[in-house]
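Re: that backbone. Tokens:
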């Protein structure tokens, strides 16, 4: 196995375990302090049960809400304009051993995007927006789909939903303690005075916010791992995904090349989650090549994508470059 991929997998495992263990240890310690060790499991299980129920409802019916938000319409095999996408998705699904393949949707929104989603009720789905179809060729679309189906293959939605319970649990316990303090305390005992309840509650709200950065870090690794999936399963996936990334960035931010030429390091679009007012469809190939070469050499500081749920594009290009020569 490629050492880079091995380190990425190990990082995801350790980060996931760290979030779970640190979060539960903190919550158990706080609840035990205020209400006693014997009551802590029941309180934690009660709040977790409530959060899990909400998440399951959101997960089951979320695809229908996503379709409404993105104006997504299912593609049928006899569709004269987009029916070919079903064959493309089926091909990438075959590479990823996903059976049955996901249903294909076209999303009528004004930015280049593709995303995989689904639930036990809605089934697996993958959506492609109209601007993405206009700026990418078929091989580049396959590479993007290799990334998106990687999310389905790795069950990223379910994993991140489960780990997301930790900051939610910390938030709700902090919220409850804060209001208990504001209302005059949580009962008898030296630890349940209003002041300490309020302060600890506020502290837990702040901690829940900090945990969101751990989730962003984990999500960036999952996105990188989806890039790996495209490179490992789709023929030519690494190179074509590099070109797709460059084209998406240039389509939503045409001035990127000029800024790089002037050696400015302004923020640019991360893949698939940027909504410009206008998409540039005619992208010069030499600009694509130039941007990729720039990204290959760019030294990205650790904080460049700290607030993002996707890695900096240069990190993605450099990872894909390593994978091009490891298979």
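Recovered sequence:
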């Amino acid at each position: 196995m490629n050492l880079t991929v091995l380190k990425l997998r190990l990082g995801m495992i350790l980060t996931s375990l760290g979030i779970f263990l640190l979060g539960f240890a903190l919550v158990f310690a706080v609840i035990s302090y205020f209400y006693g060790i014997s009551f802590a499991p029941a309180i934690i299980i009660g709040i977790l049960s409530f959060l899990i129920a909400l998440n399951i409802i959101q997960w089951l019916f979320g695809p229908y809400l996503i379709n409404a938000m993105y104006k997504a319409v299912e593609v049928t095999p006899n569709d004269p304009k987009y029916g070919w996408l079903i064959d493309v998705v089926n091909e990438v699904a075959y590479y990823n051993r996903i059976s049955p393949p996901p249903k294909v949707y076209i999303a009528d929104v004004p930015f280049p995007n593709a995303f995989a989603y689904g639930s036990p009720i809605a089934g697996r789905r993958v959506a492609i927006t109209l601007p993405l179809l206009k700026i990418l060729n078929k091989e580049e679309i396959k590479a993007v789909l290799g990334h998106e189906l990687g999310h389905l293959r790795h069950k990223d939605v379910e994993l991140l939903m489960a780990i997301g319970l930790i900051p939610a649990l910390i938030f709700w316990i902090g919220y409850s303690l804060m209001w208990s303090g504001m209302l005059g305390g949580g009962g008898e005992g030296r630890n349940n005075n209003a002041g300490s309840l309020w302060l600890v509650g506020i502290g837990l709200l702040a901690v829940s916010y900090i945990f969101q950065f751990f989730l962003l870090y984990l999500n960036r690794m999952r996105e990188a791992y989806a890039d790996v999936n495209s490179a490992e399963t789709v023929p030519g996936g690494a190179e074509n995904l590099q070109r797709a990334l460059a084209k998406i960035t240039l389509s939503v931010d045409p001035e990127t090349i000029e800024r790089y030429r002037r050696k400015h390091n302004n923020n640019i679009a991360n893949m698939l989650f940027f909504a410009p007012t206008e998409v540039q469809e005619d992208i010069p190939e030499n600009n694509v090549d130039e941007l990729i070469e720039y990204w290959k050499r760019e030294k990205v500081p650790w904080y460049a994508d700290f607030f993002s749920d996707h890695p900096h594009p240069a990190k993605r290009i450099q990872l894909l470059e390593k994978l091009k020569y490891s298979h």
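The first strand starts at residue 72 and ends at 74. Confidence is low (pLDDT under 50) at residues 264-277.
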